Each structure stands twice: as structure tokens, then as C-alpha cells.
Amino acid sequence: LVGSEMCIRDRSMTLKELNIVNFKNIGEATLAFCSGFNCFIGNNGVGKTNVLDAIYQLSMCKSFFNVSDSQNIRHGEPFFVLQGKYERQEGEDIDIYCGVKRGQKKVFRKNQKIYDKLSEHIGLLPLVMISPEDVALIEGGSEGRRRLIDGIISQCDRDYMYRLIRYNKALMQRNMLLKNTAGKIPEADVIEIWDEQLADHGEEILKKRRQFLDEFKVVFQQYYELISSGKEKVVLEYNSSVKVENVCEALRENLARDAVLGYTTVGIHRDDLTMKIDGYDVKKIGSQGQKKTFLIALKLAQYVWLYRISGVKPLLLLDDIFDKLDAGRVQQIIHLVGGDIFGQVFITDTNRGHVDKMLMSQHKDYSLFRVEDGIFVNFADN
Q1: One-character DSSP codes across 61-130
Q2: CA–CA separation, 252 and 259 (whole Å)
Q3: Among 157, 99, 147, residue whose Cα is nearest residue 126
């Protein structure tokens, strides 16, 4: 299925130490991790997910939960600081610092050097997080599904990320123009400035999204089949709002409608993914277990795609993933994430039994932490 033949290089990356100050409910913590499984056990709401979000922020420059930086500052405190020390099999060790003060610009540093643009950091520390929040990919709007695709590709393709940024800026300007003309069609020479930029970047983004999905959906289907023991067949397809040969033509055809509505109705910013189980929309007919299996297979396929392209094993963050799954599917997931293709893994769970079962069935190093009200105790220290 997904072995070493998919990858030209094989470079490991390990988060050796994480320092947290005033992040969400965590006042202060210094955590040392092993290269295998790092497990956090505790009740809901004690801070298990927060430590995963801190790790996510150091890779992706933002919270997994799509909230503003200031919302992540511990209540009553003026700032938060995150610092991660990473060890790479090839190349330099990396020290990443993220600091946020209320009312000030976020500071992000690699080895003491501040980034000119945060986009320069994306892809350096590849990462995949699986969370209960992922259900929005199925039950929510198309924006979340586009964000998933864009986030995966951007970790490995700087040109794609650049084009996406330029496209969104041009889209904002075009929408502002449409809104300000109060229902009238803007002058051709003005609207064409933005149409040309949307077409230039949009057509390349569309091509790369389709190419990505052609490769990605094969691995996704294989993982779903493994987790479900072949009980269901799944489909993942790209659905574009652009029904003609090029984006410019689509924009011209819909200009009158756009002028009335005051925004741009076609383009890669309106595209979506079609998700089906056994020929039916997973959102409408999928059980909770089927939806969770669908999402986990999506994220494991994301891991494999990033590994294939970068040659670096991403960090894998598993937040309470065993809930609502039958014993058979839990066992399959435990078997999969314990395989050689996966590197360092971070796991949260309220049920120590799930974690103990995973650790007993694998032959990897592990660290086990008990979490209570933002305080972390390593079981090895007891």
C-alpha cells in the first residue's frame, strides 16, 4: 500500500522538547518527548488537546481551531510563548519560537532569526492532525474542504501557496469593486485587471488541485478499505464551479450576475469536494463510525502524500480519535499508525485502555503523560 517505494528520500524529524508559557489553560510546562508514541491521558477539558494545538501552531503558524492568536493567551495574562526544539536526521537541528502579546504582531523565529513572512515557514515541519473538529469537513461548508486541500499542497509547493495568496488578494479587490458599483457592471478596463489575475493564478491552482486529488484519492481509498475491512466503497472527487475552458471566460459569462449580487460567483474559491460512501453522500447517509473512518482515512492519506513529496515523515497528532469506532476499526488504526511509515506520534485519550492496547501491540519507544488542569506529569517520573 504505502511503503518506502513511494518516497525518494527518508529523513526523520523529531520534536525533542516543547516549552509552553500561558497558552490556553497551560500556565507553564516543559515537556520532553521520545521519537515514537507520546501519549496524554486525562479527562475532557484538562489541556490534552491544547498541547497538540501548541505543536500544530509551531508548524503551521496558527491554531488548528481557526481562532485568533489573542484568544489562545491564557486568561488574565498578557502573552503566550511556545518554543520547540526539533532534531533532524539530515541537516541542522531547529529551534522554533512563537510569541504573541496582546495588541502586538506575532513574533515567529527559526534559530533566533525572525521570518520576514510567515509563509516562509510553512512546510519546514510537516504535520498532520486528526481531531473531532474534522467532522466539519463533512458536515460543514465547502470552505473547510478547500482549506484542507490548500493546506496539504501548500506544505510542499511554495508556488501554489504564492498563487493562492495572490488569487485571494485579487478576489478581495474584485469583490470590493462589484460591491461599490451598486449593481452596475464595472468598466471593462477596470474589472479586467482583476479578472486577468484571477485567471492567471486560478487556472494554475485548479490544475494543481486536480492533479493532487488524482494521486491523493487512491491512497485515501486504500486506507478506508483497510480501516473498514472492505465493508464500504468510498469516492472523493473534485467539483469545480468553472464549467468552461478557462477562468476568464467563466468570469465574463457571470459578470452581470456578479454585479447584481456584489461578489464573484465562479472561480476556484467556490469549488468543492464530493464525498460518497457506496454511491451516496456521506453527509446524508454515513453513520458516526463511517464518518469518522472517512476522516481518519483522509488524514492518513494526507500524511502519506506529504511524506511522498517531502521525504520527511510528518508529525502525526491524534486527538481522541478512537471514540465512536467499533473495536475492529480501532484495532486496524492501531496497527496502521504503528507501522514503519509513521514517525513520531502524539496521542490524546480519556481512556487509558486504548493507549495501553496500542503500546502493548507495538515495538516503539513511548512517553506517557497524565494531564490535570494544564499540568503534565510523566508516568516515568512517578
Answers
A1: SS-TT---GGGGBPTT-SEEEEEEEEEESSS--EEEEEEEETTS--EEEETTEEPSSGGGTTTSS-EEEE
A2: 11
A3: 157
Query: Side by side, which strands form the sheet with 234-239?
Result: 234-239, 272-277, 280-281
Q: Which residues, 6 or more positions from 91, have their beta carbon under 8 angstroms from its beta carbon?
A: 11
Q: Answer for the pair 55, 86: CB distance below 8 angstroms, yes or no.
A: no
Helix (H, G, I), strand (E, B) or coil at 33: coil
Q: What are phi and psi of 70, to 5 degrees?
A: -65, -25
Is the distance from CB of 96 to CB of 125 less than 8 angstroms? yes
Q: Digits of tens for pLDDT over the chain (382 positions)?
A: 444 334 445 567 899 999 999 999 999 999 999 999 999 999 999 999 999 999 999 999 999 998 899 999 999 999 999 999 999 877 679 999 999 999 999 999 999 999 988 989 999 999 999 999 999 999 999 999 999 999 999 988 999 999 999 999 999 999 999 999 878 999 988 999 999 999 999 999 999 999 999 999 999 999 999 998 888 999 999 999 988 778 899 999 999 999 999 999 999 999 999 999 999 999 999 998 899 999 999 999 999 999 998 889 999 999 988 887 888 888 888 888 888 889 999 999 988 877 887 787 777 889 999 999 999 998 866 5
Q: How many angstroms separate the CA atoms of 250 and 99, rounded? A: 44
Q: What backbone torsions phi and psi does residue 105 show, to the nearest 5 degrees?
A: -70, 140
Lookup: cell for 240: 469545480
Q: How far apart are CA 53 and CA 48, in angstroms?
A: 9
pTM of the full structure: 0.90
**Distance (Å, whole) CA 47 – CA 88:** 28
